[in-house]
């Protein structure tokens, strides 16, 4: 990813979400919604306001705001990310 030409011109860079039905991507890059993993160019996105009061779909809201500001959003299709659900720990194991 770091060898991508002009990577500093992108406002957001991210990876596609993993799926068992994923086949080889047809294109190495695409302009698409980013979720679960993204790299934020803080120099370009400093004027975009992040809505801290939004409880759900905050990633969709931020992607739409970045797109409306004219920033480039790039998804690297040759990589994928998977979230692991952890059933124990965190707030669930904290007894009050």
From TrEMBL:
InterPro entries recorded = GREB1 (IPR028422), TAGT (IPR049100)
The signal sequence is none
Domain TET-Associated Glycosyltransferase, residue spans: 2-87
Specify the domain of life of the species encoding this protein.
Eukaryota
Output the PANTHER family linked to this UniProt entry: GREB1-RELATED, PROTEIN GREB1
Name of the protein in question = TET-Associated Glycosyltransferase domain-containing protein
User: What is the scientific name of the source organism?
Assistant: Albula glossodonta
Origin organism lineage: Eukaryota, Metazoa, Chordata, Craniata, Vertebrata
């Amino acid at each position: 990813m770091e060898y991508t030409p002009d990577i500093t011109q992108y406002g957001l860079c991210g990876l596609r979400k993993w799926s068992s039905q994923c086949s080889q991507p047809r294109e190495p890059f695409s302009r698409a919604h980013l979720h679960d993993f993204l790299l934020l160019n803080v120099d370009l996105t400093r004027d975009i306001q992040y809505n801290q009061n939004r409880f759900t779909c905050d990633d969709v809201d931020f992607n739409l705001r970045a797109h409306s500001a004219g920033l480039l959003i790039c998804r690297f299709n040759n990589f994928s990310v998977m979230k692991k659900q952890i059933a124990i720990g965190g707030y669930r194991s904290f007894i009050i």
